[in-house]
Every structure is written in structure tokens, then in C-alpha cells.
């Protein structure tokens, strides 16, 4: 998701999309679909047409503009269907998105090509961020009115709101076969002064269900205690994970970097924090430092949020440290292997 995409979505893309739908519907009224379908299925060359249609259906997600449709579908879907208020516990809950490997995503090893995971990650992250943080984005975007974001001198920051993808890491454990279904489980991992970190697990489809859904009921759930094969041992859910990715997002007002906690707070997902709040302290992520034990059954307060944020940050910091590898590039000072075509 590029910086400025969301800033253009409401005033530009949404009206254009609505106009296109209206025009398409208007034109469709003048088509005799029964005659058209009969000619398609029975006319000369029907076998080729049917095979082509079958191929397109199996590979729709790899067709031109399909990625754009998938991304903007996530925006529209959550604008129309998101509950008015999510519980604060939802902050670290998973967003689940299903997909299937198309034939055009299959490489010469006869499994899903590693490069295609990143397009799926775009879609999964869009669902998560739009659903969780959607209500907070207009608040930050209208900062001239709401005055949530200020620079170091205390001046109100203005500019168009946008989200930028800073980096993606993906670890592959097992392959996904052609036409095989899978699920992407994405959640907020942590955040620091600049970056919001998101972890996404690619999971075998249908093997794992959450214990419940926030807001609308969207499918079956499992009991909180799930046993494996009657043995009395808790299921190791990691055995269903085929790949795991970590991504980091930055929020912008113009060229000014917005602290992620401001966006999360504007979405109503941060409990009140004493002292200097969520932006205080040397790290810019709040004080005081004392934390209580996380109690899943207790009240969801700032100590539990901070404990979970720190737990995720212990992984995210290693990922963030890889930014330093940019300095390793020396421009081939000691030479290069060669320059090759068809890159």
C-alpha cells in the first residue's frame, strides 16, 4: 500500500468505481444474456471458449488488474461491514483471509512460487489494517481539525494521510501445491516510534479455527481448549504454518511520520496509560516501565497491551536491524561478475 493511496481512495477511486459500476449496469440492461449464453455454449468454437473460461476462472487472481480489485475490495468490504466498535482486545487478534494457488502462480517445482506470496500479503495486510485502524485514519487525516499530531515544536501537522510499506521478510517452511487452498492469518505484532509491525502466517486451510470472532460472526469457531487426537495434549498449531512473514508500515501526514500509537489510539483500541501516556519516555512508547503479569481472563489494561507490544518487539527488532545491510553495498568496488539480459 503506497503512501497516498488511502488519501486518494475516498475522493477519487471510490466515486470513479461507483460511476463504473453504474455505467456497467446500464450497459448490461441492453444485453440479452440468454441468447448470449446460448451462443457461447453451443455456437462454433464452443470447446475453445469453454476451456478458456475454465482457465480464466482457475487463474482469476493472476489476471491483469486482479491485484487492484483484491486490494480495493478489502477497502470497500470493511467500510460497509465493519462493526461500529471493536473491543480493545481485538488489537492483537488475527484477521483471516482465504485464497488458493492459481496455475499461473505455480513454478517449475510444481508449487506456489515464492515471489507470489508478497501479492497475497498485500491483500491480507489491507484487510487487517482497514478493519482495525479504519476509523482512526480519517481522524488523523483531518489533523488540521482534530489536532492529534504535532511536531517537536508543538505545531499541528497538516498534509495528506497515507501508509507506506517499509519492508517485508518471509520465511518458507513447506510448499503450497497447485490449486491448494490456504489461509493468511495477519495480526499486529508490535510498534515502535516509527514502524507498525505486522506478522502474517500462511496456514493450511480448514485446519485451525479461532475461539471466537470480534464483532460479526463470520464462521465456525473452536472451543478454547482443543486437544489433539484424544491424547490429552494441546495442539501444536505451528505444524499447520507453511510460511511466516513480517511487514512494517509507516504512517504519513505529507512527509511527516506519524507515531503508530496515535493511529491505534484514534481507532479506539488503546486503553488509557498513566504518566506520559503512549508517546512518553525516551523510546517514545510510554512510561512508567513496571508491568504486571498478563492475565488473559482479567481486565484488558495498558499493562497487557504494553507487555504484548514488547513481546512482539523482541522479534521485530531483529527484522528492523536488517535495514543496516544497505550500508554493505559498495557499488562493485572490487569488481562484478557480469551484466546479464532478461532480468
From TrEMBL:
Keywords: Membrane, Transmembrane, Transmembrane helix. The chain crosses the membrane at residues 50-72. Residues 274-298 are annotated as: Disordered. InterPro entries: HotDog_dom_sf, THEM6_lcsJ_thioesterase. Coiled coil: none annotated. Belongs to the lcsJ thioesterase family. This is Capsule polysaccharide biosynthesis protein.
Amino acid at each position: 500500500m503506497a503512501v497516498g493511496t488511502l488519501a486518494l481512495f475516498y475522493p477519487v477511486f471510490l466515486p470513479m468505481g461507483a460511476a463504473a459500476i453504474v455505467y456497467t449496469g446500464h450497459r448490461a440492461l441492453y444485453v440479452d444474456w440468454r441468447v448470449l449464453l446460448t451462443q457461447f455454449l453451443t455456437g462454433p468454437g464452443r470447446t475453445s471458449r469453454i476451456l478458456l473460461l475454465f482457465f480464466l476462472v482457475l487463474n482469476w487472481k493472476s489476471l491483469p488488474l486482479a491485484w487492484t480489485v483484491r486490494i480495493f475490495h478489502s477497502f470497500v468490504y470493511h467500510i460497509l461491514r465493519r462493526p461500529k466498535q471493536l473491543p480493545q482486545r481485538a488489537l492483537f487478534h488475527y484477521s483471516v483471509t482465504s485464497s488458493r494457488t492459481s496455475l499461473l502462480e505455480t513454478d517449475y517445482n510444481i508449487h506456489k512460487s515464492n515471489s507470489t506470496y508478497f501479492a497475497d500479503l498485500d491483500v491480507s495486510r489491507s484487510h487487517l489494517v482497514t478493519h482495525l485502524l479504519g476509523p482512526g485514519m480519517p481522524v488523523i487525516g483531518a489533523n488540521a481539525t482534530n489536532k492529534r499530531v504535532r511536531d517537536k515544536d508543538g505545531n499541528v501537522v497538516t498534509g495528506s494521510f497515507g501508509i507506506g510499506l517499509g519492508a517485508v521478510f518471509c520465511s518458507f517452511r513447506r510448499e503450497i501445491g497447485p490449486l491448494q487452498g490456504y489461509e493468511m492469518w495477519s495480526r499486529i505484532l508490535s510498534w515502535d516510534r516509527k514502524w507498525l509491525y505486522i506478522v502474517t502466517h500462511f496456514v493450511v486451510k480448514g485446519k485451525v479455527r479461532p475461539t471466537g470472532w470480534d464483532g460479526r460472526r463470520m464462521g465456525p469457531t473452536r472451543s478454547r481448549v482443543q486437544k489433539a487426537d484424544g491424547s490429552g495434549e494441546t495442539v501444536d498449531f505451528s505444524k499447520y504454518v507453511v510460511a511466516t512473514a513480517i511487514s512494517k508500515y509507516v504512517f504519513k501526514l505529507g512527509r511527516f511520520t506519524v507515531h503508530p500509537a496515535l493511529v491505534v489510539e484514534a481507532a479506539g483500541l488503546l486503553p488509557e496509560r498513566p504518566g506520559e501516556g503512549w508517546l512518553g519516555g525516551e523510546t517514545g512508547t510510554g512510561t512508567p516501565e513496571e508491568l504486571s503479569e498478563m492475565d488473559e481472563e482479567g481486565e484488558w489494561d495498558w499493562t497487557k497491551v504494553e507487555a504484548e507490544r514488547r513481546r512482539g518487539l523482541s522479534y521485530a527488532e531483529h527484522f528492523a536491524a536488517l535495514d543496516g545491510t544497505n550500508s554493505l553495498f559498495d557499488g562493485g568496488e572490487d569488481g562484478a561478475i557480469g551484466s546479464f539480459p532478461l532480468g
